[in-house]
Amino acid sequence: MQFNALTAHELHDRLAKKEISSVEITEAVFKRIDEVEEKVRSLVTQTRDKALQKAAEVDMKIARGEKIGPLEGIPVLIKDNMCTEGILTTCSSKMLHNFVPPYNATVVEKLKQAGAVIIGKANMDEFAMGSSTENSRFFATRNPWDKERVPGGSSGGSAAAVAADETIYSLGSDTGGSIRQPASFCGVVGLKPTYGAVSRYGLIAYASSLDQIGPFAKDVRDCTRVFGTIAGHDPKDSTSAEFAVPDYTSFLTGDVKGLRVGIPREYFVEGTDSGVKELINNAIKKFEELGAICEETSLPHTEYALPVYYIIAPAEASSNLARYDGVKYGYRDESAEDMVTMYMRTRSEGFGTEVKRRIMLGTYALSSGYYDAYYLKALKVRTLIKQDFDRAFENFDILISPTAPTPAFKFGEKSDDPMQMYLSDVFTISVNLAGIPGLTIPCGFVDGLPVGLQLMGRPFGEGTLFRAAYAFEQNTEFHLSRPKL
Amino acid sequence: MLTKEQVEHVALLGRLELSDAEKETYATQLSDILEYFEALNKIDTENIPPTAHVLPIKNVFREDKVSEHLDNEMALANAPAKEGNSFKVPRII
């Protein structure tokens, strides 16, 4: 039995029955990493010794007859933009190549309290800016389904590792689609929670009004368990929401009778792969078969989401990334003799091309004389995009769409043309702008490449997304397919 | 189209030192992206309030009391250069 190929809930059941040990699970995960990591390249840091030590602690606890929690003793991989005390946290950037945080992000602290076994840190697009993980300053992660293709991004390492069974589940972050698009490309489940549902404390900021942390998992049940563990108010994040975290597994009924499913027509326009469209239509039929009521609806401002996002996100990024000055941590250019030259050289050498492009774009959009024309205008259109969703959710419980317009693309296919790369997020960014939750689940294959179905819900309506996704998953077998490596 | 001078001005504001090749590339690429933004001018937003943030949260206060914090050694642990209890930087004036 390959323990690393199982889900967290299957492993938990076996741990609780003392059929296997956490050390055995953790060893199986690292054995898999040793076998396939050369092909996948999803991890920037491995924490083997600490992981095995933690696993042994959990095994002792089980041996003493103590009860264990759902994630206790189960391996997890963390995207390298979440602070881990004493463990390198690089954002896959030269700027933070040597940064060892003195504290844990709240999500990391919550996982530790839940007894999780942290196996390492996942590769990503530098500072989470990108849609292919090609912008990592260290190396590109490969899609486990086709090594000629990208895993998506920016959380490409987190997605590829789950698909390759190098971890049981992982955490990523999503600012414009950075969890859902790679989950779609790699054929796994990925959730971008409601803005404010998960603490951002210790998440290295990209665009603060859009960033959210969420799970990658092998099935919907695991996704509910991880989300239930990391969600909740945190006094250390002033944008974290006060809400009661329900038992999300209670939504896994398998029943969607009477669920009102909206299909926004703007998400089925030209430019979407015909194979992807066909799979989404099949998914709609499946929901109807299961008793859901599917009807077309409209989100009229959809076409403006991409320009709005590429004003707001770089604007916030240009401000957030001002902190990298070569003084407090990270890379510093040693050649400069005065302060300003030191700042400028440090930042020019420390940041990669895409990061610099977004700093330039954001700085321009916020600069004197252009603020109203770009930034303020974008914030106003953001209101209209949010209102589109408010109106749609008066009539529908969830909305469904493709997660991305195409399956995974090839390395280099879009890396020279920023606009083409940005368009791969066209179906995911509205969800961030509106602050609502978005979940992607596998819904089939085009030429052997996985395709994701996106489910969008009301703010704090993750439970309804889980209900719908679970019913779909119970009646399909796409989530059971694994790449051959 | 952004001029070389505009690109240099923005780079200075963002504290980035760019090579001539980078200036040219960014001038073209940023111009293309800005042109794409023109689409937003199709919409009348005269009476639409801006959304900087989706949650109805305002003025999140906490009690003003001392809690856990990093000690001097920890705060300096990642510094590229330090001297005594301080960060060390190049000449400012």
SSE layout and pairings?
The complex is a heterodimer of chains A (485) and B (93).
Chain A: H1 8-16, H2 22-40, E1 43-46, H3 48-63, E2 75-79, H4 106-113, E3 117-122, H5 156-163, E4 169-174, H6 180-186, E5 189-192, E6 212-217, H7 220-230, E7 260-264, H8 274-289, E8 293-297, H9 305-320, H10 339-350, H11 353-366, H12 372-395, E9 398-402, H13 418-423, H14 429-434, E10 438-446, E11 449-457, H15 462-474
Parallel strand pairs in A: 2-3, 2-4, 7-8, 7-9
Antiparallel strand pairs in A: 1-3, 4-6, 5-6, 5-10, 9-11, 10-11
Chain B: H1 4-13, H2 20-37, H3 72-76, E1 82-83, E2 86-87
Antiparallel strand pairs in B: 1-2
Structural summary, described in words:
The complex is a heterodimer of chains A (485) and B (93). Chain A is α/β, with parallel strands linked by helices. Chain A contains 15 helices and eleven strands. Chain A has a domain of 256 residues: Amidase signature (AS) domain (Amidase signature (AS) enzymes, Alpha-Beta Complex). In chain A, helix 5 runs parallel beside helix 6, helix 7 packs antiparallel against helix 15 and helix 9 crosses helix 11. Chain A is globular and about 65 Å long. The two termini of chain A are 17 Å apart. Helices cover 35% and strands 4% of the residues of chain B. Chain B has a domain of 38 residues: Histone, subunit A. By secondary structure, chain B is mainly α. Classes of the chains: A alpha/beta (485), B mainly alpha (93). At the A-B interface, helix 9, helix 10, helix 11 and helix 12 of A face helix 1 and helix 2 of B.
